[in-house]
Amino acid sequence: MTLFAGNTAVWTVLCFTAAMLGCFWGYRLQKLVIALVVFGGAYMLVQRFGAQFLPYPGAVTGLAIVVAFIAAGLSFHLYLAGVFAALVCAGISIARMWIANDWVALPVGIVAGCVLGVLAVRMNRTIVIVVTGLAGG
User: Fold this and answer.
1) Distance CA 7, CA 57 (A)
2) How many angstroms separate the CA atoms of 122 and 137, rounded?
3) DSSP structure class, residue 5
């Protein structure tokens, strides 16, 4: 019985390589991974919705590529703003789940989200290094 046959060996090597890169170069690769994910998401969104408005498939694809590159470039340079905004939204969501009164939950969530956002932005490098080290190891 062969343990690794065909594509399984290739995928195993690729996954192992990705895990090691994430483990040892996680912080350096963080912005690149974010930019690649945003590129793919922006391309799919423009491709899907652009077909509703443009009759030419080539024009839709060209527009999708241009918008995807712009979105990836913005995310590469503004990822800390995205981290802060995501944690503010998470703070509001958590406060609304725990506090029944929305008039109280909203300001508490905004304050808690801002505190979490500032901590995440200030400790971003440390958190990413620890998380990618644990995930890769």
Assistant:
1) 34
2) 25
3) -
- At residue 1 the predicted structure's pLDDT band, cuts being 50, 70 and 90, is very low
Residue 38 burial class via C-beta count within 10 angstroms: exposed 0-12, middle 13-18, buried 19 and up: buried
Residue 12: how many other CB atoms lie within 10 Å? 12
- Tell me the per-residue pLDDT of 115-128, one tens digit each, with 9 for 90 and over: 988 988 888 878 77
Q: Which pTM does this prediction carry?
A: 0.56
Query: Rounded CA gap, 119 and 2, in Å?
Result: 50
CB 113 within 8 A of CB 88: yes
Query: In 97-132, which positions are buried (b, 16+ CB within 10 angstroms) versus exposed (e)?
Result: eeeeeeeebeebbeebbeebbeebeeebeeeeeeeb
